[in-house]
Structure formats: C-alpha cells, structure tokens
Design a protein that fits this description.
Layout (H helix, E strand, L loop, with lengths): L12 E3 L20 E6 L18 H25 L6 E6 L4 H9 L6 E6 L4 H13 L6 H7 L8 E6 L7 H12 L3 E5 L5 E6 L17 H11 L4 E3 L9 H13 L5 H20 L4
Parallel strand pairs: 2-3, 2-5, 3-4, 6-8
Antiparallel strand pairs: 1-4, 5-7, 6-7
Helix pairs in contact: 1-8, 7-8
Length: about 290
C-alpha cells in the first residue's frame, strides 16, 4: 500500500536497525568505506508522478500502489546484494528529487531490517540530473583522481558505483553482481533495455558531461550515452540486456515471469495476480472474451 501522506521529517540517511530501535533523521550522509555502491533511482509514490506511461491501462491510484510494490521489491533485491553477494560489502542508497526525500524516508522507516540505506537528494531536475548527482556524490571526480590515488591508493579509482531503476525487482541478483565485476575492467558499465534505453549505468568516477543533453527516457538514450562516453574516451562494458516496466505489455510480461517465480518479487507478484484477476472479472462482466 502507498505510504501515508503528511510527513514532516527531513531525512537524508535512514537507519534500518532492529524493530526495537528508532530510525535516524540525520541531514548529512556519512561517507562509506565500501568499494561497491548500489543506488536506486526513485521517486516518492504519488498519483500522477510515477509510471505515467501506464495511465492508459491503470488508474493513478493503481499505478501508485503498483509502484510501491516495485520499489519495495527492488529495495529487497538491493539488500540481498548487500547481505548475500559474493562481492562482500555493498552500500545501498536511494537518489531522488529533493521534494521526495521525506516520503521515501517514511517508507523506509516502516520496514524492519538490519540494513542501512541512504536517501540522497539530487541536485537539479530530471533523470539526467539525478544520474549526474549519483556519481558526483558517491564517486571521486575524474579530474581529482591522480591526487586521490596518491593520498588514498586503495580507495582512488576503485570504488564502483552503479545506479539502476526502481522498477527492476525482476532482475536476477547475478546481473547486478556481474555488472560490478564488469565495471572493474571498464570505465563505465551499461545495462541496455530492448527499447533503446538502459536500466543500469555504473562508473568508477564522476564525469559531469556523461549525462548532459536531452534524450533521457527515449529510444535514443543508449545511443546518446555511448556517444558521450566515446567522446570522453571512456571504455564501456555491458550488462545483460533486460526490460523495464513502462507500458501494459511490460506488465503482462512481468506477470507471466512472476507466476513462475513469485519469490523473485513477492509484493509485485501478488499485486499483479490481483490485477489479472480483476481484469479477468471485468472482461467477464462486460461480456468480453
């Protein structure tokens, strides 16, 4: 279910300890010592603000409920990488618009977990600004790399940062693990989608112009990204091609996959099961086949 409205706490770092402990509302994110950072690009689940391309198939309230399930299952996937991955320690974070920090903090604070998740406000508007903020915040800048290598030989240019969609609970954990491994040998790693975009992008340093310009969310997004990476002389490795959830056909595809393996994304699987049942009953009541 969507989180309740009316949040009045400003949280930039959310601690998710045992149930007996309260969550923290610190305004500064502490630096992490982890060499692997997984960042979920998210928005607060508000009607009309998320998954808008599904509006022709679902009501705003249904889209919001569905997005909550996607986000919660994606968080569970990220935590599984943190707790069970062969990579060792993985820091998990959320990057979101400034206006969404409180709502996402509340969503996280309602969950009982031993994990720690950061919620970080992006600088600027839109997905390109969000991705730029991810690497500016969590990765060293390319220009300062030589100085950091001298001062911190272990940390400099080793930290691998990957950002991925909040509608990706159906991704096998191995895809994320392999993406981190691919990033060890390349400057950038990209997970292409079937529609010409990408669901995942990672780097070991901040390159401010990598996401500059238009084209985000379009069929040319991947092509534009690769072109800018080439102009910056960055080597690019690829994760497995996958799909994200944008239109009704994606819903049907995801529902079919999760009928076979609901444990991959249990909240989303249950929501889709109920959605399919409601759609079937609606067709029956109207005499449709």
């Amino acid at each position: 279910m969507p989180p309740k409205a009316g949040f009045n706490k400003t949280a930039r770092r959310i601690l998710l300890p045992q149930q007996s402990m309260e969550f923290s509302t610190e305004t500064v994110v502490r630096p992490s010592r982890s060499d692997h950072v997984l960042v979920i690009m998210a928005k607060a689940p508000r009607p009309g603000a998320v998954k808008t391309r599904l509006a022709s198939s679902l009501s705003p309230e249904a889209i919001t409920a569905f997005y909550c399930c996607l986000l919660e299952d994606t968080l569970a996937l990220a935590r599984s990488l943190k707790l069970k991955s062969k990579l060792g320690g993985v820091e998990v974070a959320i990057m979101c618009p400034e206006s969404d920090v409180n709502d996402l903090a509340q969503l996280l604070s309602s969950e009982a977990s031993g994990s720690e998740v950061s919620v970080v406000a992006q600088k600027g508007e839109g997905l390109a600004a969000g991705l730029t903020s991810v690497f500016a915040h969590f990765a060293p800048s390319y220009q300062s790399d030589d100085r950091q290598r001298e001062a911190h030989p272990r940390d400099a240019h080793q930290r691998r940062v990957i950002a991925f969609n909040s509608d990706s609970p159906h991704l096998p954990r191995s895809v994320l693990e392999d993406a981190f491994e691919t990033l060890a040998a390349h400057d950038v790693v990209v997970g292409p989608t079937h529609d010409g975009g990408y669901y995942l992008v990672g780097a070991k340093a901040s390159h401010p112009t990598l996401f500059a310009g238009d084209g985000m969310g379009t069929s040319s997004a991947l092509e534009r990204l690769l072109s800018r990476a080439g102009a910056l002389e960055l080597s690019v490795g690829f994760a497995d091609r996958f799909y994200d959830i944008d239109i009704a056909d994606d819903l049907s595809r995801l529902a079919e996959e999760l009928r076979v393996a609901p444990a991959r994304a249990p909240r989303t699987a249950q929501w889709l099961k109920e959605w399919e049942l409601a759609a079937s009953q609606s067709r029956t009541s109207t005499g449709e086949l």
